[in-house]
């Protein structure tokens, strides 16, 4: 039985010409045959770093691709390890501008929505895969209050099996190595 996986990472935003998450998405999409051989129908997307475009983009992707699992990627520049998010909170900062220089108009992602949504039990296993392949990684209980948290919250709210991986602001060989490990994590997540 073929499983469908959507890997979506954020694109560039203020202060970053290129987002490491977008680099990983582009690398994984070149591995479509490898995913197919493992029984995974891979779909990839680069998400807009824009409050008012994110929800419609995710809704469209879910309607068009109907993924069994969703692996979301973003950058957390102050972190020194991969962090796999365990929680998404119904909150967003009204102080941080997005790539379009817009701010969220409300501190809630969804009015009346649950305060917290939990990612599935695959988080510790994915962190262990990363560590086994030489990348520092750990579960995290704080996806932030920006679009990374919002994408995970919306994905879980839309009843998707979703996981969010924050990458440090790695470049060069370190980022290429991380991308190869995330490929292994993505396959495991899709098939679990």
Structure description:
It is a single chain. This protein has 192 residues and is of the alpha/beta class. The protein has a single domain (3-191), classed as 3-Layer(aba) Sandwich (Aminopeptidase). Helix content is 38%, strand content 23%. It has 6 helices and 8 strands. It has helices spanning 20-29, 32-37, 51-65, 123-132, 147-157, 172-191; strands at 3-10, 40-47, 69-75, 82-85, 87-89, 116-118, 137-140, 161-167. The protein has a 6-stranded mixed β-sheet with strand order 2-1-3-8-4-7, sandwiched between helices. The chain starts with a strand and ends with a helix. The relative contact order is 0.23.
Question: Count of helical segments?
Answer: 6
At the fold tier of CATH, the topology name is: Aminopeptidase
| Helix-strand makeup class | alpha/beta
Order of helices and strands: EHHEHEEEEHEHEH
DSSP E strands, number: 8
Q: What level of helicity do the residues show?
A: 25-40%
CATH architecture: 3-Layer(aba) Sandwich
| Count of the separate structural domains | 1
Q: Quick one: CATH class?
A: Alpha Beta
Low-confidence stretches: none
Q: Taking Cα atoms only, what radius of gyration do you get, to the nearest Å? A: 15 Å
Protein name: Pyrrolidone-carboxylate peptidase
InterPro entries: Peptidase_C15, Peptidase_C15-like, Peptidase_C15-like_sf
Family: Belongs to the peptidase C15 family.
Keywords: Cytoplasm, Hydrolase, Protease, Thiol protease
């Amino acid at each position: 039985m073929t499983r469908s996986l959507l890997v979506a990472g954020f694109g560039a935003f203020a202060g970053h010409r290129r987002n490491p998450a977008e680099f990983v998405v582009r690398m994984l999409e070149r591995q479509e045959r490898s995913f197919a051989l493992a029984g995974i129908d891979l779909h990839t997307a680069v998400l807009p770093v824009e409050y008012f475009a994110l929800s419609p983009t995710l809704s469209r992707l879910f309607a068009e691709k109907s993924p069994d699992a969703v692996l979301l990627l973003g950058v957390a520049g102050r972190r020194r390890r991969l962090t796999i998010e365990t929680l998404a909170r119904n909150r967003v900062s009204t102080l941080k501008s997005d790539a379009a220089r817009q701010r969220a108009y409300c501190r809630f992602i969804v009015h009346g929505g649950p305060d917290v949504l939990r990612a599935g039990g695959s988080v510790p296993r994915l962190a262990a895969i990363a560590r086994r392949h030489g990348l520092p990684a750990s579960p995290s209980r704080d996806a932030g209050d920006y679009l990374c948290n919002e994408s995970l919250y919306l994905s879980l709210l839309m009843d998707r099996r979703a996981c969010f991986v924050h990458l440090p602001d790695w470049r060069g060989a370190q980022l290429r190595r991380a991308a190869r490990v995330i490929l292994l994590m993505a396959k495991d997540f899709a098939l679990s």
